[in-house]
Amino acid sequence: MPPRKKRRPSAGDDMSAKKSRQDSVFRKHETSQIREEETFSSKRCLEWFYEYAGCDDVVGPEGMEKFCEDIGVEPENVVMLVLAWKLDAQSMGYFTLQEWLRDQFLSYCVSPVMCDSTERLRNSLDYLRSVLNDTTSFKLIYRYAFDFAREKDQRSLDLNTAKCMLGLLLGKTWPLFPVFNQFLEQSKYKVINKDQWCNVLEFSRTINLDLSNYDEDGAWPVLLDEFVEWYKEREMS
Protein backbone atom coordinates (compact mmCIF):
# COMPACT_ATOMS: atom_id res chain seq x y z
CA MET A 1 0.00 0.00 0.00
CA PRO A 2 1.53 3.34 -1.04
CA PRO A 3 2.25 5.79 1.78
CA ARG A 4 -0.59 8.19 2.54
CA LYS A 5 0.14 11.73 1.53
CA LYS A 6 0.11 14.34 4.25
CA ARG A 7 -2.66 16.85 3.81
CA ARG A 8 -1.48 20.41 3.44
CA PRO A 9 -3.05 22.64 6.13
CA SER A 10 -5.70 24.89 4.71
CA ALA A 11 -6.23 28.53 5.57
CA GLY A 12 -9.09 27.44 7.84
CA ASP A 13 -6.76 25.12 9.73
CA ASP A 14 -4.29 27.95 10.23
CA MET A 15 -7.03 30.21 11.62
CA SER A 16 -8.28 27.42 13.93
CA ALA A 17 -4.81 26.74 15.30
CA LYS A 18 -4.18 30.45 15.80
CA LYS A 19 -7.48 30.85 17.65
CA SER A 20 -6.67 27.83 19.83
CA ARG A 21 -3.31 29.37 20.78
CA GLN A 22 -4.98 32.70 21.52
CA ASP A 23 -7.60 31.00 23.71
CA SER A 24 -4.86 29.18 25.59
CA VAL A 25 -2.93 32.40 26.19
CA PHE A 26 -6.13 34.16 27.28
CA ARG A 27 -6.98 31.36 29.73
CA LYS A 28 -3.50 31.52 31.23
CA HIS A 29 -3.74 35.30 31.53
CA GLU A 30 -7.23 35.05 33.06
CA THR A 31 -6.05 32.41 35.56
CA SER A 32 -3.09 34.59 36.43
CA GLN A 33 -5.39 37.56 37.03
CA ILE A 34 -7.66 35.50 39.27
CA ARG A 35 -4.70 34.27 41.31
CA GLU A 36 -3.43 37.81 41.59
CA GLU A 37 -6.83 39.05 42.75
CA GLU A 38 -7.12 36.25 45.31
CA THR A 39 -3.61 36.72 46.70
CA PHE A 40 -3.42 38.41 50.08
CA SER A 41 -1.27 41.54 50.07
CA SER A 42 0.46 42.52 53.33
CA LYS A 43 1.30 45.88 51.79
CA ARG A 44 -2.33 46.54 50.87
CA CYS A 45 -3.42 45.44 54.35
CA LEU A 46 -0.95 47.87 55.94
CA GLU A 47 -2.12 50.73 53.72
CA TRP A 48 -5.70 49.85 54.66
CA PHE A 49 -4.82 50.10 58.37
CA TYR A 50 -3.30 53.56 58.02
CA GLU A 51 -6.41 54.81 56.23
CA TYR A 52 -8.00 54.72 59.69
CA ALA A 53 -5.00 55.08 62.00
CA GLY A 54 -3.48 58.14 60.33
CA CYS A 55 0.05 58.62 61.66
CA ASP A 56 -0.49 56.41 64.71
CA ASP A 57 -0.09 52.68 65.18
CA VAL A 58 -3.60 52.33 66.53
CA VAL A 59 -7.07 52.88 65.10
CA GLY A 60 -8.87 55.03 67.68
CA PRO A 61 -12.54 55.93 68.13
CA GLU A 62 -12.67 58.34 65.16
CA GLY A 63 -10.93 55.91 62.85
CA MET A 64 -13.10 53.08 64.12
CA GLU A 65 -16.23 55.08 63.36
CA LYS A 66 -15.04 55.62 59.77
CA PHE A 67 -14.06 51.94 59.51
CA CYS A 68 -17.56 50.84 60.59
CA GLU A 69 -19.13 53.27 58.14
CA ASP A 70 -17.02 51.90 55.28
CA ILE A 71 -17.88 48.27 55.95
CA GLY A 72 -21.54 49.17 56.52
CA VAL A 73 -21.84 48.11 60.16
CA GLU A 74 -22.92 50.11 63.20
CA PRO A 75 -20.23 50.27 65.92
CA GLU A 76 -22.71 48.68 68.36
CA ASN A 77 -23.44 45.76 66.03
CA VAL A 78 -22.53 42.37 67.47
CA VAL A 79 -20.51 41.57 64.34
CA MET A 80 -17.94 44.12 65.53
CA LEU A 81 -17.56 42.13 68.74
CA VAL A 82 -16.98 38.96 66.72
CA LEU A 83 -14.40 40.81 64.65
CA ALA A 84 -12.64 42.06 67.80
CA TRP A 85 -12.65 38.51 69.17
CA LYS A 86 -11.10 37.17 65.98
CA LEU A 87 -8.32 39.75 66.29
CA ASP A 88 -8.03 39.25 70.05
CA ALA A 89 -8.37 43.02 70.46
CA GLN A 90 -7.73 44.14 74.02
CA SER A 91 -9.58 47.45 74.27
CA MET A 92 -13.06 48.39 73.09
CA GLY A 93 -12.99 51.05 70.38
CA TYR A 94 -9.36 50.42 69.39
CA PHE A 95 -7.43 48.19 66.99
CA THR A 96 -3.64 48.24 67.30
CA LEU A 97 -1.39 47.55 64.34
CA GLN A 98 -0.37 44.23 65.86
CA GLU A 99 -4.01 43.20 66.28
CA TRP A 100 -4.91 44.36 62.77
CA LEU A 101 -2.15 42.27 61.23
CA ARG A 102 -2.75 39.26 63.46
CA ASP A 103 -3.13 36.21 61.20
CA GLN A 104 -2.76 38.64 58.27
CA PHE A 105 -5.97 40.39 59.24
CA LEU A 106 -8.21 37.37 59.53
CA SER A 107 -6.70 35.50 56.61
CA TYR A 108 -7.20 32.23 58.46
CA CYS A 109 -10.17 33.19 60.60
CA VAL A 110 -12.78 35.23 58.78
CA SER A 111 -13.31 33.15 55.67
CA PRO A 112 -11.45 31.41 52.86
CA VAL A 113 -11.01 34.89 51.35
CA MET A 114 -8.07 36.75 52.88
CA CYS A 115 -9.10 40.20 54.07
CA ASP A 116 -6.83 43.05 53.12
CA SER A 117 -9.43 45.55 51.97
CA THR A 118 -12.81 46.99 52.88
CA GLU A 119 -14.56 45.08 50.10
CA ARG A 120 -13.18 41.72 51.16
CA LEU A 121 -14.14 42.25 54.77
CA ARG A 122 -17.60 43.44 53.77
CA ASN A 123 -18.02 40.22 51.79
CA SER A 124 -17.05 38.23 54.90
CA LEU A 125 -19.57 39.78 57.30
CA ASP A 126 -22.10 37.00 56.82
CA TYR A 127 -19.44 34.51 57.87
CA LEU A 128 -18.68 36.54 61.00
CA ARG A 129 -22.37 36.59 61.90
CA SER A 130 -22.63 32.84 61.37
CA VAL A 131 -19.93 32.24 63.99
CA LEU A 132 -22.48 33.24 66.63
CA ASN A 133 -24.58 30.21 65.67
CA ASP A 134 -21.84 27.85 66.80
CA THR A 135 -22.40 27.05 70.50
CA THR A 136 -18.71 26.67 71.37
CA SER A 137 -17.66 29.84 69.54
CA PHE A 138 -20.51 31.81 71.09
CA LYS A 139 -19.42 30.80 74.58
CA LEU A 140 -15.87 31.91 73.83
CA ILE A 141 -17.12 35.24 72.44
CA TYR A 142 -19.38 35.71 75.46
CA ARG A 143 -16.49 35.17 77.88
CA TYR A 144 -14.20 37.37 75.80
CA ALA A 145 -16.76 40.19 75.89
CA PHE A 146 -16.42 40.56 79.66
CA ASP A 147 -12.68 41.32 79.59
CA PHE A 148 -12.97 43.28 76.37
CA ALA A 149 -15.60 45.66 77.75
CA ARG A 150 -14.36 46.18 81.32
CA GLU A 151 -12.03 48.94 82.43
CA LYS A 152 -8.59 47.37 82.58
CA ASP A 153 -7.96 48.61 86.12
CA GLN A 154 -11.20 46.97 87.32
CA ARG A 155 -11.92 43.29 87.85
CA SER A 156 -15.68 43.70 87.36
CA LEU A 157 -17.90 45.18 84.69
CA ASP A 158 -19.93 48.27 85.58
CA LEU A 159 -23.65 47.58 85.45
CA ASN A 160 -24.53 49.86 82.53
CA THR A 161 -21.84 48.33 80.34
CA ALA A 162 -22.87 44.84 81.45
CA LYS A 163 -26.50 45.48 80.48
CA CYS A 164 -25.44 46.76 77.05
CA MET A 165 -23.22 43.75 76.39
CA LEU A 166 -25.84 41.31 77.64
CA GLY A 167 -28.38 42.95 75.36
CA LEU A 168 -25.98 42.64 72.45
CA LEU A 169 -25.29 38.95 73.08
CA LEU A 170 -28.52 37.62 74.57
CA GLY A 171 -31.16 40.24 73.76
CA LYS A 172 -32.42 38.49 70.62
CA THR A 173 -32.05 34.89 71.75
CA TRP A 174 -33.06 34.77 75.43
CA PRO A 175 -36.78 35.55 75.90
CA LEU A 176 -36.24 36.36 79.59
CA PHE A 177 -33.60 39.00 78.89
CA PRO A 178 -36.02 42.01 79.03
CA VAL A 179 -37.22 40.87 82.45
CA PHE A 180 -33.68 40.18 83.65
CA ASN A 181 -32.66 43.62 82.44
CA GLN A 182 -35.51 45.17 84.49
CA PHE A 183 -34.31 43.24 87.52
CA LEU A 184 -30.78 44.61 87.12
CA GLU A 185 -32.09 48.17 86.77
CA GLN A 186 -33.93 48.06 90.10
CA SER A 187 -31.32 45.95 91.92
CA LYS A 188 -28.64 47.02 94.38
CA TYR A 189 -25.88 45.85 92.01
CA LYS A 190 -23.45 48.40 90.60
CA VAL A 191 -21.07 45.93 88.95
CA ILE A 192 -21.13 42.38 87.59
CA ASN A 193 -18.18 40.09 88.30
CA LYS A 194 -16.94 37.40 85.93
CA ASP A 195 -18.50 34.50 87.82
CA GLN A 196 -21.91 36.19 87.69
CA TRP A 197 -21.39 37.04 84.02
CA CYS A 198 -20.58 33.45 83.02
CA ASN A 199 -23.45 32.04 85.09
CA VAL A 200 -25.98 34.30 83.36
CA LEU A 201 -25.15 32.56 80.06
CA GLU A 202 -25.47 29.12 81.67
CA PHE A 203 -28.76 30.18 83.25
CA SER A 204 -30.13 31.39 79.90
CA ARG A 205 -29.25 28.07 78.26
CA THR A 206 -30.42 25.60 80.91
CA ILE A 207 -33.27 27.14 82.91
CA ASN A 208 -36.85 26.91 81.63
CA LEU A 209 -38.69 30.13 80.85
CA ASP A 210 -41.03 29.51 83.79
CA LEU A 211 -37.96 28.87 86.01
CA SER A 212 -39.51 25.53 87.04
CA ASN A 213 -36.19 23.66 86.93
CA TYR A 214 -34.21 26.26 88.89
CA ASP A 215 -32.55 24.70 91.94
CA GLU A 216 -32.26 27.27 94.71
CA ASP A 217 -29.78 24.99 96.47
CA GLY A 218 -27.61 24.75 93.37
CA ALA A 219 -24.29 26.48 92.83
CA TRP A 220 -25.84 29.58 91.29
CA PRO A 221 -24.57 33.00 92.38
CA VAL A 222 -26.75 35.03 94.77
CA LEU A 223 -27.51 37.43 91.91
CA LEU A 224 -29.53 34.74 90.14
CA ASP A 225 -31.20 33.52 93.35
CA GLU A 226 -32.41 37.07 93.84
CA PHE A 227 -33.57 37.33 90.23
CA VAL A 228 -35.64 34.15 90.52
CA GLU A 229 -37.20 35.33 93.80
CA TRP A 230 -37.95 38.78 92.33
CA TYR A 231 -39.42 37.25 89.17
CA LYS A 232 -41.74 34.89 91.05
CA GLU A 233 -42.98 37.66 93.32
CA ARG A 234 -43.58 39.82 90.26
CA GLU A 235 -45.60 37.07 88.57
CA MET A 236 -47.73 36.49 91.67
CA SER A 237 -48.58 40.16 92.19
Topology:
Layout: H1 11-38, H2 42-53, E1 58-59, H3 61-71, H4 78-87, E2 95-96, H5 97-101, H6 103-106, H7 118-122, H8 125-131, H9 135-149, E3 157-158, H10 159-170, H11 177-186, E4 191-192, H12 194-206, H13 222-236
How would you sum up this structure, described in words?
The structure is a single chain. By secondary structure, this protein is mostly helical. The chain has 2 domains: 42-131, EF-hand (Recoverin, domain 1), CATH 1.10.238; 135-236, Orthogonal Bundle (Recoverin, domain 1). Helices cover 62% and strands 3% of the residues. The protein has 13 helices and 4 strands. It has helices spanning 11-38, 42-53, 61-71, 78-87, 97-101, 103-106, 118-122, 125-131, 135-149, 159-170, 177-186, 194-206, 222-236; strands at residues 58-59, 95-96, 157-158, 191-192. The chain has a two-stranded antiparallel ribbon with strand order 1-2. Strands 3-4 form a two-stranded antiparallel sheet. The radius of gyration is 28 Å and the shape is elongated. The termini are far apart.
Please bin the fraction of helical residues. 55-70%
Low-confidence stretches: 28-37, 104-113
CATH architectural label of the largest domain: Orthogonal Bundle
Distance between the termini: 112 Å
**What integer value in Å does the Rg equal?**
28 Å
Shape: elongated
User: What structural class is derived from the secondary structure elements?
Assistant: mainly alpha
The domain tally reads 2
Order of helices and strands: HHEHHEHHHHHEHHEHH
Give the amount of beta strand, in percent.
under 5%
- Mean pLDDT figure: 84
Work out the number of β strands. 4
| Physical arrangement of strands within the biggest beta sheet | 1-2
CATH T-level fold name of the largest domain:
Recoverin, domain 1
Count of DSSP helices?
13
Sheet having the most strands: 2 strands, antiparallel
Considering the protein shown, what is the CATH homologous superfamily of the largest domain? Cullin, PONY binding domain
CATH class of the largest domain: Mainly Alpha
Domain DCUN1: 40-232
GO cellular component, one term: ubiquitin ligase complex
Protein name: DCN1-like protein
Keywords: Nucleus
